[in-house]
Amino acid sequence: MRKKFCPKCGKATEKFYDNLCSECFLEKISFKDLIPDKISIKVCKYCGRVLWRNKYFNRVNDAVEEILSRLFKKDEIKEVFYEILDGKVSVKIWIRIDDLEKQEEKVSKLAIKSITCKFCFMKSTGYYQAILQVRASKDISSKILKEVEKQINILSKTDELAFISRIEELKNGFNIFIGSKKAALALVKILRRKFDGKIKISRKLGSIKKGKKLYRYTILLSMVNEWGRRSFNQVKKSLR
Question: Between β-strands 100-115 and 38-44, what pairing exists: parallel, antiparallel or unpaired?
Answer without folding.
Answer: parallel
